[in-house]
């Protein structure tokens, strides 16, 4: 039997219930010193609830948490947990965009001299921490000027100002480019070498095999398994997570695409002031009804900006658009795009898609209310309920009630609600920007099948994904963006990961 390391963190018998839902039931977690520990499970498995309990954001109904052998008060606040050495970095950053990097790192704990903030000491301390992490970030820079990856690094640097013993990372690479992921992995390994422990939550199982030492799997709010990563294959981990075999393989499409649904020529853009949009130059492409067109490219290559132009959410300086062979004006607003049959699932669901304080029902039905009325002016509760129930079943949305605020759902279930909202509009062209971001591997397989079914129903789909294997699995064609240009189109069935990656990086195929 393998000797287990002396635990830095022990969570025993953690139980938590919400009205109508048992989120956790007797869950245990052990993390050793200087260990990267993967916490795995499908959406709704209880990972987020456990993280909130460990961070002090919620109190358990039962159970005990011990840090370095000392029992922690379950009523501690997040600040008290941070001071004890447990720091959480959430998937949605908690940074103040208009303040500097240094101010964000020490917010509420700024060094003081004679009753005033000691700015010299503040910037000096921040600079030393950033240098120790090997980060080339100016501590005086405003956070809003940083890339997503740099903001992630600022979150880690802030954790180090608390002398963290344990850092909890919730989907830390979900929005990072390949280069930024490499930087994050380097920093995680360096922290492990210094004796800092990491609880690492991810749906990207390739990360688990290259980065993590041990793992714990939750399913339906219960502990399922734990062990050493090196003793288990990726297929083993998937089976433990979902309780069945799941494969993300290429599927030959049996129904050929038909007539052209959308064509663009010469799409160009010059971003307005204070935006981080890419400059697009002379984009020409088409997509046919029943076809899945994948858009590949590194972060900042212009894929999302192109999608937002088609949806009327971004300014276009030049270009022409045809819908089903009829030339039309490029949409000037999302409402105009929806009216013409173009719908977008946005990249950032919380920023651009969800009304977090509103109910699941309101979020799902909002654009379709005209079809759910009674006597033309009054929304029918019965029709709304049937509408929500239909998509709850077809997409497998886990919710206690459709009146629950959408902000209470896991990220994957929020994404499914937004997918339902898009599909209900019966679009001619459906643009999906990172449709499976934050969704577990079991649900990802279901979403891929839903995408194929939507295409088989005659809808033209444009899918943007940072995961090349996902694009290769579902796309009929793949268009590759690089630095605002469309550099190539390749056949989805014959394309290889190496070929597409080479086009993304240097503009030519290896």
Instruction: Give the radius of gyration.
Output: 24 Å
DSSP helix count? Answer: 17
Total DSSP E strands: 24
CATH fold node name of the largest domain = Rossmann fold
The top level CATH class name of the largest domain: Alpha Beta
- β-strand percent reads 25-35%
Mean pLDDT: 86
Question: What keyword list fits this structure?
Answer:
alpha/beta; 2 domains; 17 helices; 25% strand; 510 residues; disordered N terminus; 6-stranded mixed beta sheet; single chain; globular
Question: How would you sum up this structure, described in words?
Answer:
33% of the residues lie in helices and 25% in strands. With 510 residues, the protein is an alpha/beta fold. It folds into two domains: 9-242, Rossmann fold (3-Layer(aba) Sandwich), CATH 3.40.50; 260-506, P-loop containing nucleotide triphosphate hydrolases (Rossmann fold, 3-Layer(aba) Sandwich), CATH 3.40.50. It has a six-stranded mixed beta sheet with strand order 6-9-10-3-11-12, with helices on both faces. The chain is globular. 43% of the residues are buried. Residues 1-5 have low confidence and may be disordered.
Secondary structure blueprint with pairings:
Layout: E1 9-18, E2 21-31, E3 36-40, H1 47-55, E4 62-67, E5 70-71, H2 78-84, E6 86-89, H3 101-105, E7 112-113, E8 116-117, H4 119-132, H5 148-160, E9 166-170, H6 178-193, E10 197-201, H7 205-211, E11 214-219, E12 222-228, H8 234-242, E13 260-269, E14 280-288, E15 292-296, H9 303-310, E16 318-323, E17 326-328, H10 334-340, E18 342-345, H11 349-353, H12 360-365, E19 373-374, E20 378-379, H13 381-395, H14 411-423, E21 429-433, H15 441-456, E22 460-464, H16 468-474, E23 477-482, E24 485-491, H17 497-506
Parallel strand pairs: 3-10, 3-11, 6-9, 9-10, 15-22, 15-23, 18-21, 21-22
Antiparallel strand pairs: 1-2, 1-4, 4-5, 7-8, 11-12, 13-14, 13-16, 16-17, 19-20, 23-24
């Amino acid at each position: 039997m393998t000797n287990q390391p002396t635990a830095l963190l022990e969570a025993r018998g953690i139980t938590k219930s919400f009205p109508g839902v048992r989120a956790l039931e007797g869950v245990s977690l052990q993390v050793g010193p200087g260990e990267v520990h993967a916490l795995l499970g499908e959406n709704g498995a209880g990972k987020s609830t456990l993280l909130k309990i460990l961070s002090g954001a919620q109190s358990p109904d039962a159970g005990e948490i011990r840090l370095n052998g000392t029992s922690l008060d379950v009523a501690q606040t997040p600040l008290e947990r941070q001071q004890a050495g447990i720091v959480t970095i959430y998937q949605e950053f908690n940074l103040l965009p208009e303040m500097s990097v240094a101010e964000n790192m020490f917010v509420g704990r700024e060094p003081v001299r004679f009753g005033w903030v000691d700015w010299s000491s503040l910037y000096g301390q921040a600079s030393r921490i950033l240098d120790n992490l090997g980060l080339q970030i100016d501590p005086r820079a405003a956070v809003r000027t940083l890339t997503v990856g740099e903001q992630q690094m600022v979150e880690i640097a802030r954790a180090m100002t608390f002398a963290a013993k344990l850092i909890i990372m919730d989907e830390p690479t979900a929005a990072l480019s390949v280069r930024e992921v490499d930087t994050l992995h380097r920093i995680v390994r360096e922290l492990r070498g210094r004796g800092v422990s990491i609880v690492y939550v991810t749906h990207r199982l390739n990360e688990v095999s290259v980065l993590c030492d041990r793992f714990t799997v939750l399913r339906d709010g219960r502990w399922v398994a734990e062990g050493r990563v090196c003793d288990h294959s990726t297929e083993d981990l998937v089976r433990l997570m979902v309780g069945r075999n799941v494969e993300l393989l290429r599927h030959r499409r049996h129904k050929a695409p038909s007539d052209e649904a959308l064509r663009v020529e010469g799409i160009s853009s010059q971003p307005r002031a204070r935006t981080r949009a890419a400059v697009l130059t002379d984009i020409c492409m088409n997509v046919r009804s029943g076809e899945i067109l994948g858009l590949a490219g590194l972060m900042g290559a212009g894929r999302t900006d192109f999608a937002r132009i088609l949806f009327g959410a971004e300014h276009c300086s030049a270009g022409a658009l045809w819908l089903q062979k009829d030339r039309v004006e490029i949409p000037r607003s999302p409402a105009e795009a929806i009216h013409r049959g173009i719908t977008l699932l946005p990249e950032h669901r919380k920023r651009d898609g969800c009304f977090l304080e509103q109910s699941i029902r309101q979020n799902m039905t909002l654009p379709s209310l005209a079809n759910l009325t009674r006597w033309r002016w009054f929304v029918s509760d019965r029709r709304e309920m049937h509408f929500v129930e239909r998509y709850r079943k077809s997409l497998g949305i886990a919710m206690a009630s459709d009146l629950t605020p959408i902000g209470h759902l896991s990220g994957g279930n929020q994404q499914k609600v937004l997918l339902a909202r898009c599909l209900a509009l019966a679009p001619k062209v459906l643009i999906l920007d990172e449709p499976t971001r934050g969704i577990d591997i079991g649900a990802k397989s279901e979403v891929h099948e839903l995408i194929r079914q939507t295409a088989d129903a005659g809808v033209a789909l444009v899918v943007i994904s940072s995961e090349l294997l996902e694009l290769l699995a579902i796309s009929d064609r793949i268009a590759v963006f690089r630095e605002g240009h469309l550099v190539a189109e390749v056949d989805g069935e014959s394309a290889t990961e190496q070929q597409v990656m080479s086009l993304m990086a240097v503009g030519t195929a290896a």
